[in-house]
Amino acid sequence: MLITIFVAASLLMLAGVYSLFSSLFLSLSGKGPKNWKKLCYGSLLAGLVLGLASWLGTFWMLLPYPNIAGEGWFAGFPYVAVYVDGTGYHYHFNFTQASVVANGIFWFLLPMAGLHLYGRHWRRQQQKAA
Predict the structure, then answer these.
(1) First vs last Cα of the chain: how many Å apart?
(2) CB 15 within 8 A of CB 9
(3) Could you give the CA distance from residue 75 to residue 123 in angstroms, rounded to a whole number?
């Protein structure tokens, strides 16, 4: 299950990078909706807030993970940064810092993916109208 989440999050992150560049290109070309630049800036600001919040709030994003020894939690979503067992002991991994950075990047790019979907919908509407 964790591998599925990791793969899906990685694909969403790649889609977010594509969305970032295509949305900025559409903004620079001037062929988008009249409020496109405001939406781009708002999406970047929302992504910055979400990215910083996920960076600072990694230990508050806990996913329960029951095992033989009892209840445990994975900290960080969608990329697991730390495992906390039932007694409260933290197990850091070799990739903990990379996971925290990846979580921040993921949450930064997520609003841009939504903006990209809106831009595609708008372009389809323009093509139908023409």
Answers:
(1) 46
(2) no
(3) 39
Q: Distances in Å between the alpha carbon of 41 and those of 31, 38, 82?
A: 16, 5, 33
Token digits of residue 120: 């595609």
C-alpha distances (whole Å) from 40 to each of 5, 73, 89, 111 are 27, 36, 42, 9
16-41 confidence digits (pLDDT tens): 888 888 888 887 777 778 888 899 89
Place of tokens 């994003």: 61
Q: Is the pLDDT of residue 1 over 70?
A: no
Q: For 56-86, write each residue's pLDDT tens digit.
A: 887 777 778 777 767 888 887 787 778 888 7
Residue 33 is predicted with a pLDDT of 83
Residues 20-38: b if buried by 16+ CB within 10 A, e if exposed: beebeebbeeeebeeebee
d(C-alpha 120, C-alpha 64), whole Å: 37
Q: Residue 13 burial by CB count (10 A; 0-12/13-18/19+): exposed, middle or buried?
A: buried
